[in-house]
Amino acid sequence: MKIEIKNLIKEYTQGDQTFRAVNDVSFSISNGDFFCVTGRSGSGKSTLLNIIAGLTLPTSGNVLLDGQEIFALPDEAISLYRNAKIGCVPQQYSLLSDLTVLDNIRLPFYLAKRDGDSEKEAQRLMALVGIEKLAARMPKRLSGGQVKRVAIARAMINKPGILLADEPTGDLDAQTTEDIMKIFKKVADEGTAVIMVTHDLDTTEYANRRFEMNSGILSQK
Ligand SMILES: Nc1ncnc2c1ncn2[C@@H]1O[C@H](COP(=O)(O)OP(=O)(O)OP(=O)(O)O)[C@@H](O)[C@H]1O
Ligand SMILES: [Mg+2]
User: Which one of 1, 48, 128, 221 has the minimum C-beta count within 10 Å?
Assistant: First the structure.
């Protein structure tokens, strides 16, 4: 699977001023790549991820999945792209509080209206992220690092072609951060492309390509 990001521009208007949160960004990512994006607060990193996730419509430009322009599709097909092809670990993640860890992880499987059962895959992913003993736990009894691990497993349940992670290690200790980077590396090695936004420079060494965002402009480091 190949994702091409072509000349993405996102303009926002504040008062009578229009500015570009994302300013002509282009790159390609394929199976097994692990990209990281650093950059100051407000430089457009989350906006870029949200466009790639099909959550935010770009002002111009497009995201191509195996040659197909995502934003040329009808809304319903964009939702399907998002649910079936993309896994997201958002900057602020809240699990559904009245579902167990296992059911939170399985939820996107049902949202994507898949046939069959997701329990085996959920168990494989819980083992991958090291939370196999927490299947029956309710989210309010998890630590911050455990919540992130559940969010990663949840993002992977539909075997997405691309995993988008927005500051996945934001408030975690060094050991948990290292564990999560190793998980992303494993996920990339299994064939999912990973794009991670991070403020933590120690985590960038796990990536195979590093980018920096400056006032909406993406450049390779
Ligand atoms: N819906 C919106 N309407 C107007 N402006 C927006 C909107 N969303 C984001 N912005 C602006 O676009 C710019 C980029 O925001 P974005 O959230 O992408 O930054 P970021 O790089 O993720 O920052 P951080 O590191 O703090 O998460 C900011 O100036 C922000 O205020
Ligand atoms: Mg952000």
Answer: 221
